[in-house]
Amino acid sequence: MAVMAELTRRAALRLGVGAAGLLGSGVLLNPPSSYATGNAFPTRESGSFVSAARGGLETNWIIARPPGQTAPLRPVIALHCKDGDAAWVMDLGVEEELAKLTAAGHPPFAVVAVDGGNTYWRPHASGGDSGAMVLGELIPMLADKGIDTSRVGFMGWSMGGYGAMLLGTRLGAARTAGICAISPAIYMTYFGAPAGAFDSVDDWRTNSVFNLAPKLAPIPLRVDCGTSDSFFYATKSFVGQLNPRPAGEFTPGGHDVSYWRAQLPAELAWMDS
Which CATH superfamily is 9-271 part of? Predict the structure, then answer.
């Protein structure tokens, strides 16, 4: 499998989302009946919605929780790689690792995955904006699913690692609890990026991850990448420009599911710290 954006007010209005709806506390005000009666939420919940931000595409979502949870949990929004989807994220072992963390005494949290297509979690001239979908549609929806969205975390793999940093900085430090970018798809030049990643050289310059450094500074950040990954040198260069230096490490491994599964326990534990 081949592995391998701040939501503006104008974009929010296009989606019919007011500033209060996008940037409000998101605290659960009308808990679902399962919470109101004290029954445990399911460990895995899934569904779909028609996303206006993605041009009317049916968009699947999955929420994973540790077992036995009866109260709203803070979420980590997990963004898939290129050619992935919500189910791909869960297949990394998310549900099992959440259960292990909670059993070991870590505070519980939820992981939310959603289909985003291959648009790098940001708008393109061709139409559709999966980043706007996450910020303006998915996150507001979660309050009706027993999720406390007053603050959220982001994590992602490859294309999703880039997207996690992009969306975390767009949501802002006040609401972004932390970002974990795993093997992020970082392109040093426009011509080094695959077709469809950027619309033009100017688009690459505007949306390069290197422009995010000042906005990332106040947000807890972790970056992991394998030393045999094709993005290793670009990621190392990017990390070297960050102040403060992020958590995470460069360890042996490639740009593949084996590396990502091996890193997942430590990354979820970091998101919970």
Answer: Alpha/Beta hydrolase fold, catalytic domain (3.40.50.1820)
